[in-house]
Model the fold of this input.
Amino acid sequence: MAAVVHPSAVVEPGARLGDGVSVGPFCHVGSEVEIGDGTSLGPHCSVAGPTRIGRGNRFVGHCAIGGEPQDKKFQGERVELVIGDGNTFREFVTVNRGTAGGGGVTRIGDRNWMLAYVHVAHDCIVGNDCVFSNNATLAGHVTVGDHVILSGFAGVHQFCRIGSHAFVGMGAFVNGDVPPFVMVAQQDYGKPRGINAEGLKRRGFGPERIAAIKRAYRALYVAGGSLDEARAKLADIAGDSEDVRLLLEFVNSGERPLLR
Done:
C-alpha cells in the first residue's frame, strides 16, 4: 500500500516512505529521512535527517524529530537518529540527533511511549518498553534501559544511566546513575525509595526474584556502609540471582557517581 501524503505536507526529494506510511497536514519530512511501513505522522510534525524510523510508529502531532543537537560544539557534522518499531510519540515531543563527540547517534528502541512534551537530547540511548510521562526530559548522553518509567516532569542529568525496570517519580531530578529495579522519589534531587516492586510483579517477576532484589537494595542503600562494602555484599547475593548480577554489573560501571 502506497504512502499517503496530505497535500499541505512537504516531503523533500530523497526521503523514503514505506508502505502504508501516513503524513498528515502541514508536516515536513527532510531529504535524508527513512520512515518504515505503517508509521503515521500527525499534523504539524517535522522530521529532519539523517533519521531512520522503523515500522508502526505513531507521531500524534507537533513532534520535532531528528533536529540538530542542542550542543554548542555541533558544527554541522553528519550525525543521525535511529528509532525502532511500535513507538508512540505524543504531542510536542522533541528528539535530537547525536553529536560527533558522543558517538554520532541518538537511538530509541521499540514499543516506547513518549507522552506530551518529552525531550530526548543528543546521544541518548533508550531501550524498549519504556514510558516517559509528560515533560520528562533527558539531557545529552543519557542511557536508559528497558521497562523504565519516568514520571511527569522528571529530569535526568547528562551522562547518567537509568537501569532496566527502574521507576523515577514525579518531579525528581536525577543527577547520578540509578541502578536497575530501583525507585527514585523527589527530594530536592531524586533519592532512592526502595525497589519498583509493583512494576516487577506486573512483568512476571516471582517472589524469590523480588526478594533477592530487595536484599540487594538493602545492601546498597540501607546498610550504611561504604560503596566498596556494598559491592562485596552484592557479590555474595549475586551468586544466586541473575538479577542481582545485573545490578552489580551496573554499579561497577559508568561515568557518573551512583545515586545514593
Summary: DSSP finds four helices and 28 strands in the chain.
